[in-house]
Amino acid sequence: MSERRQRRSSMLIVIGASAGGMAALKQLVAQFPQDFPAPIFIVNHMSADTTGEALVRVLDGSSSLTCVHAHNNQAFKRGNIYLAPSDQHMLIVKGKILITKGARENRSRPAIDPLFRSAAVAYGNRVVGIILTGYLDDGTSGMMAIKRCGGVCIAQDPEDAAYPDMPQSVITNVGADYCVPISEMGAVLSELVRRKLPEYKPAPEDLVIEAKIAQRVLSDLPSVEALGEQVPYNCPDCGGVLWKVADGDLLRYRCHTGHAFTSSVLLAQQTEKIEETLWVALRMFEERQNLLETMSKNESKKPPSSISQRARDSQIHIDRIRAMLKATDKDFHGEGAG
């Protein structure tokens, strides 16, 4: 095999999408020629109770390439599209795919950051990362890893995206090598996968640690302490202590069990937990008020007691909680979810 063909076969394309992802991915994969000389790996956020088969069928029918769900320890080939299965992370190591049930990142499994980070650690400057439409900022940290390892960053033009948060976050925090509408990405990729590449350099140690955490090879206190400093916040998923990890201006948080959040996702998750707590409190106050009213009726022959007053006090708390829920509802739905 010639040196040029070796370079071609070693390139990887990793793609992340969320809200609006099916339409965006369908448009993108339709541009790949049948002899596309690189494997393509896709994470599209999906709920745990979906199979993802519909997306596989859509992409397989829209492209001249074969699209399949990735399997654990599967050797990958150029010219194939591998889609992360639902409720599992897809990671890349040398020559094969890992499918893991690791901790959620940015509330998602599969998540974009673990795929991007693992590819950067394994293949360095041979990785091209693409971030498409979606809420919040999953993919930003992973794209930073790709850039730090010498790879290429492509962001969908936010004006072209149905939901511009994710590509805009990459542009703001990482800086895209290419910021283009999806209709132009095929031509950009066809040129990139045929470029000459410098020698691969080993990945920075902090990226290697995070890649290992996603593989569940290690996840312990020394690992996260090597990544950042402990902060007085708790992980909303498991209740564990969090460590702050700084990626330039992007703040991230990790717990020692493996959950990870950007600051915006952590805020959204905390808001959701507050909303859940308020609903529980509202239910309990309403039940208390109903019980007090029942007791007040049963004691109607007795002199006025504090029961009626306690019922009125409960109504005050109920009104306050309802007002907070209305405000929290606006905040929560304004932040959105990937």
Q: Which short descriptors sum up this protein?
A:
338 residues; 11 helices; seven-stranded parallel sheet; alpha/beta
Number of helices: 11
In CATH terms, what is the fold-level topology of the largest domain? Rossmann fold
β content, as a range? 15-25%
Major sheet description: 7 strands, parallel
CATH class of the largest domain: Alpha Beta
Distance linking N and C termini: 42 Å
Q: Output mean pLDDT.
A: 88
Helix percent band = 40-55%
Oligomer: single chain
Strand order of the largest sheet: 3-5-2-1-8-9-10
List SSEs in N-to-C order.
HEHEHEEEEEHEHEHEHHHEEEEHH
CATH H level of the largest domain: which superfamily? Methylesterase CheB, C-terminal domain
Shape: elongated
Q: Which radius of gyration do the C-alpha atoms yield?
A: 24 Å
Secondary-structure-based class equals alpha/beta
Low-confidence stretches: 1-9, 332-337
The total number of structural domains is 3
Strand runs, count: 14
- Gross CATH architecture of the largest domain: 3-Layer(aba) Sandwich
